[in-house]
Each structure stands twice: as structure tokens, then as C-alpha cells.
UniProtKB/TrEMBL annotation:
It holds the Pfam family PGM_PMM_IV. Residues 8-130, 159-258, 265-373 form the Alpha-D-phosphohexomutase alpha/beta/alpha domain. Its cofactor is Mg(2+). This is Phosphomannomutase/phosphoglucomutase.
Amino acid sequence: MAADLSNIVKAYDVRGVVPDEWDESLAELFGAAFVEVVGGSAIVVGHDMRPSSPGLSAAFARGAAARGVDVTLIGLCSTDQLYYASGSTGLPGAMFTASHNPARYNGIKMCRAGAAPVGQDTGLSQIRTLVEGWLDAGAPAVPAGTVPGTVTEQDSLKGYAEHLRSLVDLASIRPLKVVVDAGNGMGGHTVPTVFEGLPLDVTQMYFELDGTFPNHEANPLDPKNIVDLQARVLAEGADLGIAFDGDADRCFIVDERGVGVSPSAITALVASRELARNGGSGTVIHNLITSWSVPEVVRENGGTPVRTRVGHSFIKEEMAKTGAIFGGEHSAHYYFKDFWNADTGMLAALHVLAALGGQDGPLSELVASYDRYEGSGEINSTVEDQAGRLAAVKETFGGREGVTLDELDGLTVTGEDWWFNVRASNTEPLLRLNVEARDADTLARVRDEALSLIRA
């Protein structure tokens, strides 16, 4: 097909509409290019429940095997299950998913051996260059005498579940009533096995694997997509609700009142538990739009917080550099040293269950000490002149006494009892604003002034 790879090769993955922007013939080229770049003699490949995923992943496997590489197909899996397969075998891997995007999209998340990320600066640009060079004539012939690799199938779900449960002590938790919304995504595949045998009364919502997402988008960070879960938690009198995104690598938590729990509060909660597991010390990574609560809790529990840019490649790079034990993002991605520095929403969910089940109070009381400030959530504004609007914000706030600026990622403006960050989207004409303050009145004042400058 005549493909424009600039539309589908993103910062961290491949993603686009099937078959309009890419198809199985292109997936086969990506498979060949992937093994050329990452090397080795074997890879693992998995896929989600989207209708196009089995065909695309099989084509990718053909492209890799034709160049002499053995391929293990692990079939239906969550993205973090693919990371488990890569980490536990020490092999590069590829996951076919478009996460929370609509049904007509699909994509590839790739990693090197041990679940190390493949992004623009770590191999993805090289893969793109190879594929672009092969679009007209196909992949070049392999050297004479190359024996095609084998393609075999192997399930990794049981091993994945056992590994996760080895990292959290769930032996003595009290019985809990849990509602889980899988959003017709891969949580419906993984949750029954991971939760098996635990003292949990689980109410299942939308566990049927259906890549057309008939009930709601599989993106729990959008408030409209957790309305059903919130109502069901209240109707069931449940202790908590858990929502997973389409490829089940992110989780979102709802408390017993049906109120969503900030991912920053979950980051702080899990950080305190991971620090305790590691003797009360260790480095914890957090991106710059997480709450002030996160570094505060890390320090209070003996740890060292390290602030990074937004994006999993920056988190994983910093974790590897510092030997961090845990990392969290306000987008509900949670990274663990004991999970090859990769992100797994399921492990974060198990930590929440262990913390809640290890004491008698409700979840809302448990997380209150980790949720100390008022937050705006992410507010997106369509802005054509992103640089001009950022400059206006910088000029307006920069001269004020007691206000500091930094440009680690976009522009972060910090006052005595508030801060906000404005970042440009990499893919759309948007500016993204996140504001936090010590009280609701201050939050509203700072938010409204920042938005007046952004939307001028």
C-alpha cells in the first residue's frame, strides 16, 4: 500500500487506521525491520481483542520469521502481559494494540529484550527508515543459507499472574467487594486469572472481549467512561471499583462513594508501599504534572523523589539511570523495578487491594492522606499559535514576586500555594493545562487567569 509513515509512526509506537493508513502487508515489513534493528534470534508477539489484531500480528511474525528469527506468539494478552513475556524470557517483543483509540485503529508497541522501550530515540526511527525504503520493492532478500525462523504459540497468562502476585502480599487481606469495568478490553482476559483465589467478590462489567467497544470508550481517564462503574459501585455497595483501558496497562480507581481517586494519590499510595518493601529507602520517579503530594509522601517514607517530563520513555529512562523502585504518571501509568521498569496497571490495582484489605477503614479515608490538594485535571484548549500563547503566559507570570518558572516540559509556573503546567500537544493544535492549589478558591483564580491567556 502507499503508506505515509509520518502519520502512523508516533513518538513511542506505531498507530493508525486499518486498512486506510496501514495493513497486513505493512505489518510484515515492520516485523522484518524490527528484527533488523533489535537483533537476536527470537522474539515474542502478542495482540489485543481488536478485529484486525490477529491478522496484523501474524503478518508481523511472518516478516520476522522470514529473516531467520524464531517467533513465539502469545496470542490474546494485555500490554503488560507482553512486557512480562519479554522480561521473563529476555526477548524483544511486539504488542498489537491501539490502547484506548476507537475500533478502526490499531498499532504496535515494541520493546527490546527485558521490556526495554523502543521509541523514536531507541530504535523506532531506524525501523521507520527501513520500512520506508522497502515500501516499493519489499524487504531485501535474506543472506544465502538463512533458515527461516519458526512460529510457535505459547500462553503466558498463568506465569504473568503468578509473577504479579509474588510482588504483593495478599495473604491476609479481608474480604472485599470489587466492581471491575474491563471496557470490553483485555482486562476481561487477565482479571479472572490474576484475581483467582483471592478473597474478592468481583462484579464483572463489560468483560466480553470486543474491539468495537459497544459500551463505552476504553479510556477511564475520561470521566464519561467511568459513569457506569461509579453507578455500579454504589448499587452493589462495593468497597471499590477498578477500570482498565483497552490494552489493560492502565487502571483507574473509584472509591466506595463512587468518587474517582486521583492517579497521583494512587502513585503516592503505591510509592509508600514500595518504599516499605525496600526497607524504607529508594528512588521514586514522578512526572511533572503529578500532585505535590507525591514527592511529599516519598520523602516522608524515606525515599528520594525524582521529577521527569511526561511520557513513558522519559520515566523508563530515568528509572534505569537511577535504579528507581517505582514510577508514576498522572495518566494512571505505574512503573515497577520488579516488573522490568515497565508499566502495569494490574500490579498497581493489586497494591490498592492489599492496602485496603489490610486495614478496616473505607478507601476514601485510606487515600485522603495521599490526596492533599485541589487539582483541575487536564484542560485542553485548541490553540493555533502555541508558542505565542506560551510566551504570553511566561511574560505575564514571570515578573511576579515569589513566582518561579521552569521549562523541563512545556512551562511550569509555581507560586507559594499553587502551580500550573502548560504543555503543547505533539500531535494536535492543543495546549494542555494542569493546575493545583492548596484550596479551591486559589485553584479557580489561577486556572481562570491561565486560561484567559491561553485562549486570548
